[in-house]
Write a structure and sequence with these properties.
It is a single chain. This protein is α/β, with parallel strands linked by helices and 335 residues long. The protein has 2 domains: 172 residues, Peroxisomal Thiolase, Chain A, domain 1 (3-Layer(aba) Sandwich); 154 residues, Thiolase/Chalcone synthase (Peroxisomal Thiolase, Chain A, domain 1). The protein contains 10 helices and 13 strands. It has a 5-stranded mixed sheet with strand order 1-7-6-4-5, sandwiched between helices. Strands 8-13-12-11 form a 4-stranded mixed sheet, sandwiched between helices. Strands 2-3 form a two-stranded antiparallel ribbon. It starts with 5 loop residues before the first strand and ends in an 8-residue tail after the last strand. The structure holds coenzyme A. Coenzyme A (COA) binds next to helix 2, helix 7 and strand 12.
Length: 335
């Protein structure tokens, strides 16, 4: 019988731009303050890519280059690149295609994956299935978003939440019992009224009208999104834990989407997992959309050990959401 192929993460690279947008600075732009933002959201500062002419592929390229170095990867060995993003450089061509050029990949094909803030989770499962099929050996998955390109910095209800950033993981074939073990992913399409960009797509292409009416910004009804995020993320996290006999004593880490510290608290407390086992960096980066999960790995990589039981969970526009169970494949930081 053929040995079962698993898909394991073999490295992490990340990048956040240098410019730090603090709550202090935001409170000079809109009517808000550090206390409100910290208690309602939990973000202290976020990074902004403010150099003109640079888009999401710049963030993705920095993250992926570091990943290639850390994993000592030959560009010719990469089969595929998947970029999860909601803020692509262009409508077309894909940001992933731009990345292929920047990384000098000759043997890869590449595509963008659009699942809003759940994008990285979907990319992880997609790459895992591609590798388990036996048809791919080595895939780069990237979560990258330049959220500042669609945030309205005169809307105090949304501008404190988001930031720019990217991180990438190498996913490779292994016959060891490690890697991306299982996922529960869902999409219901019920979220459209509550979280979207009104214009710029094929329903409502750009025009003077759409510009004048500020229709090219992220629109969100925060309270509704909050409720769905808590219940959907908690439900799937609990479901995947039960399916694999995971509980507060044998879960090593939870990696939650970084949208709101109160959402993270609620998801962790449903599983009774203490916050010390929950990756949190929202205070420094805010919500980088598809970037949040791999940026957590990037920040916590040093603390990870081979065999750690990790549950990832995310929620985003659509609505899209899910949870994945990963058995981590190596010890500590790879330099
Ligand atoms: C956006 C969010 C932080 C708002 O928090 P909230 O507790 O729901 O706050 P509300 O929108 O109900 O607003 C409460 C009050 O604070 C005010 N407020 C909103 N933003 C503010 C700000 N930045 N500073 C000060 N006050 C603010 C509102 O105007 C409102 O005032 P009112 O009661 O006088 O009308 C929260 O709803 C949230 O995190 N939602 C989920 C967002 C998310 O996860 N999105 C990404 C999904 S991928």
């Amino acid at each position: 019988m053929m040995e079962k192929i698993n898909a394991v993460i073999t490295g992490v690279g990340g990048y956040v731009p240098d410019y730090v947008l603090t709550n202090e600075e935001l409170s000079r732009m809109v009517d808000t303050n550090d206390e409100w933002i910290m208690t309602r959201i939990g973000v202290k500062e976020r990074r902004i890519l403010n150099e003109e002419g640079l888009g999401t592929s710049y963030l993705a390229r920095k993250a992926a280059k570091q990943l290639m170095q850390k994993t000592n990867s030959d560009p010719d060995s990469i089969d595929c690149v998947i970029v999860a993003t909601t803020t692509p450089d262009y409508h077309f061509p894909s940001t992933a295609s731009i990345l292929c050029d920047k990384l000098g990949l000759k043997n890869a094909y590449a595509f963008d994956l659009q699942a809003a803030c759940s994008g990285f989770l979907y990319a992880m499962e997609t790459a895992a299935s591609m590798i388990q099929s036996g048809r791919h050996k080595k895939i780069i998955i990237v979560g990258a978003d330049k959220m500042s390109s669609m945030v309205n910095y005169s809307d105090r209800a949304t501008c404190p939440i988001f930031g720019d950033g990217a991180a990438a993981c190498m996913v490779e074939a292994t016959t060891e019992e490690y890697g991306i073990i299982d996922s529960i992913l869902r999409t219901d399409g019920k979220g459209l009224p509550f979280l979207h960009m009104k214009a710029g797509g094929s329903v409502c292409p750009p025009s003077y009208f759409t510009i004048d009416n500020k229709m090219h910004y992220l629109y969100q009804e925060g309270r509704t999104v909050f409720k769905y995020a808590v219940s959907n993320m908690s439900d799937v996290t609990e479901e995947i834990a039960q399916r694999h006999g995971l509980h507060k004593d044998n879960i090593d880490w939870i990696v939650p989407h970084q949208a709101n510290l109160r959402i993270i608290d609620a998801v962790a407390s449903r599983l009774e997992v203490p916050l010390s086992k929950v990756m949190v960096n929202i205070q420094r980066y805010g919500n980088t959309s598809a970037g949040t999960l791999p940026l957590c790995l990037w920040d916590y990589e040093k603390q990870l050990k081979k065999g750690d039981n990790i549950i990832f969970t995310a929620f985003g526009a659509g609505f899209t959401w899910g949870a994945s169970y990963v058995k981590w494949g190596y010890d500590g930081d790879k330099i």
